[in-house]
Amino acid sequence: MSDADYPESVAEVLDDAMKFRPAALQAMRDFRDAKPWAGTIEERQEKFRVLNRALAAAYQIAEPELAFENLDGGSSGRSHYVRSSHRIVLVGKLSVVSYLHEFGHARGYGERMACRWSINLFKRIFPRRFSRLIQVGHMLVHPRTIGRPSPSNPSSEGPTTPPTTDK
Q1: What is the pLDDT of residues 147-157, one digit of tens each?
Q2: What is the distance between the alpha carbons of residues 46 and 66, in angstroms, rounded to a whole number?
Q3: Is 147 left (phi over 0), alpha (psi -120 to 50) or beta?
Q4: Residue 14 falls within a domain, yes or no?
Q5: What predicted TM-score, i.e. pTM, was given to this entire model?
Q6: Per-residue pLDDT tens for 89-139?
């Protein structure tokens, strides 16, 4: 499977029967209860760090380094996983789905499975937020970002690159 093997749509990867490790579901419930969209940027980053540690423990993998770059409120589509250094880099905004997508890569998943795992886990834990997002190809996009230029790219016409975004 190539790294460019993205699903054509979110619907293509939705699976309400998808199984997750109980410890991963608990980590996500704890994250949800910590209100990941509330607080200062620094407080929110710490919530992601706690989730990162808990998911690594749940899946029995080395904890990926978690870095944050250029958190300007722009698209999180430049977020990425650096396999050689086992590092997740969140760019633009603190997106839960983008983080989960990149964590999927840290688990060894290619694009299709990282999309499938991240989207279904997000939907399971945050069903109301999921229902408010717009499906654009294989991505979940907040309605406010459709057609809005990114602060880091004023000519942007909205989401252009994967992975998924949720806020």
Answers
A1: 544 444 433 33
A2: 10
A3: left
A4: no
A5: 0.81
A6: 998 788 899 999 999 999 999 999 999 999 999 999 999 988 887 666 576
Inter-CA distances, 56 with 4, 11, 16, 104, 106, Å: 25, 27, 23, 11, 9
In degrees, to the nearest 5, what angle opens at C-alpha 125 toward C-alphas 64 and 115?
Answer: 55
Q: How many residues does the chain have?
A: 167
Contacts of 86 (CB under 8 A, 6+ apart): 62, 64, 65, 106
List Cα–Cα distances, 77 to 93, 94, 166, in angstroms: 9, 11, 11
Parent domain of 133: 22-145
Query: Is the four-CA dihedral 115, 118, 119, 121 of positive or negative sign?
Result: positive
Domain count, the chain: 1
Question: Does the pLDDT at position 81 exceed 60?
Answer: yes
Residue with tokens 């907040």: 142
Residue 123, both tokens: 């939907």
Q: What is the DSSP string of 46-83?
A: HHHHHHHHHHHHHTT-PPPEEEEE--SSS-GGG-EEEG
Residue 150 lies in a domain: no
